[in-house]
Amino acid sequence: MSPTVIVTKADHDKTVKVAKGGQVTVKLTWSPGTGYDWVITKIDPLLLRQEGEASTEPAKEPMPGAPEIRVFHFRALKPGTTALEFQSRRAFEKDAPSMGEFRVQVLIGE
Fold first, then answer.
1. How far apart are CA 8 and CA 25, in angstroms?
2. Of the candidate ranges 8-12, 64-68, 79-83, the one whose mean pLDDT is the lowest
3. pTM value?
4. Which of 61, 68, 69, 74 is most buried when burial is the number of CB atoms within 10 A of its CB?
5. 96: domain CATH number?
């Protein structure tokens, strides 16, 4: 198992494996100008810990209004399996349905 596992939209609904102490990096496309952002909706804090705030990477061909990549980093704390889920939401629309969902199962080994 690699010390760092990169997870993208292509991994939706899949299981990813990471070693205890390793890092899971989640990269999801977002359009900051729309007000939507990816929000963590499910995580087991005993197994995974978010490291720092989410950051942003520019798109491959940056243009005004073009989608960017939202990047989240997590540390695998101990062996086990946990769901990691996100929803694309607007912070100012608490009761509105999400505009997208992303989830993976994270299997943490020794």
1. 9
2. 64-68
3. 0.89
4. 74
5. 2.60.40.2020
What pLDDT is attached to residue 91? 74
Residue-range definition of the domain harbouring residue 11: 4-109
Torsion sign (Cα): 103, 88, 31, 82:
negative
The structural domain count of the chain equals 1
27, β-bridge pairs? 8, 71
For 44-75, letters b (16+ CB in 10 Å) and e give eeebbebeeebeeeeeeeeeeeebbebbbbbe
Q: What's the mean pLDDT in 96-100? A: 79
**Spatial distance between the Cα atoms of 81 and 64, rounded to a whole number of angstroms:** 40
Of 74, 61, 72, residue with least CA distance to 108:
74
